[in-house]
Target: Phage XkdN-like protein
Amino acid sequence: MSDLQAFFAQNVQSDVTEEVIVSERFKGPDGKPIPWKIHNITETENEEYRKAATKRVKGKNGSQQVETDQNAYLIKILVASVVFPDLKNAELQKSYGVMGAEDLLRKMLFPGEYATLVQKVQELNGFDQSLGDLMDEVKN
Model:
């Protein structure tokens, strides 16, 4: 195989899935924490989530500025990356009294658990930056 062939789509691992313990609170029948399954997203999907979290706002002197809601952007990436538990499951959402995967994720996790999930999803998607650096990048 030539070096160039290593970059052909059929030769590249495109879907990476990992199991991570996001919280010790979600336990199976054996009493052990249940791992969450997360997978990577593509840059195309990343752009889609960034655009969905971006809006035009009026700036000074009536000029238009582009503003990205960093929290909305991040939660979209998280929801897209979580394979298990199924955040779109209506029964799971109902058990927490919410509608929608984004609201469910916010309701299910404590802040530290949420941060753990953010960190694992970032690592899986190749972000070598800290969350703060990523947020600063999104702003620009």
The CA atoms of residues 18 and 38 lie 5 Å apart.
